[in-house]
């Protein structure tokens, strides 16, 4: 079993997640500006409409991924407040520190993630 997470470590994870969150929000607002441009282009050039709506869909799907990540970050920040940060939400085992350093907002341990990937 890994040693209990120190206050300092928690603060570092919180900082990492808040920074990531800020970056996504900034990117999302840039994306919103971009999709407005895409719509203007569609209005201006009806001939290219098919291509533009494809682009729009692609951009929308991208933003879904970032929205998902935002949600995961918010959940992880709540877990930090409740003091159960770093525990797998599926099997309740501790998530390895190496995995948390790479993906602090991850809700699952590597075993559960691999299992989920095999099943899908
Ligand atoms: Zn697990």
Description:
It is built from four helices and no strands. With 120 residues, it is mainly α. It has a domain of 79 residues. The chain is flat, with a radius of gyration of 19 Å. The two termini are 30 Å apart. The model has no long low-confidence stretch (mean pLDDT 82). Bound molecules: zinc ion.
Question: What is the strand and helix layout of this fold?
Answer:
Elements: H1 7-44, H2 49-82, H3 97-102, H4 110-119
Helix pairs in contact: 1-2
The chain binds zinc ion.
Zinc ion is lined by residues 88, 90-91, 93, 108-109, 111-112.
Largest sheet: none
Share of residues in helices: over 70%
Spatial extent as radius of gyration: 19 Å
Please count the beta strands (DSSP E, at least 2 residues each).
0
Overall shape? flat
Q: Give the percentage of residues in beta strands.
A: under 5%
Class based on secondary structure composition and strand pairing: mainly alpha
Uncertain runs: none
Small molecules (ligands, ions, cofactors) in the structure? zinc ion
Task: Count helical runs.
Answer: 4
Order of helices and strands: HHHH
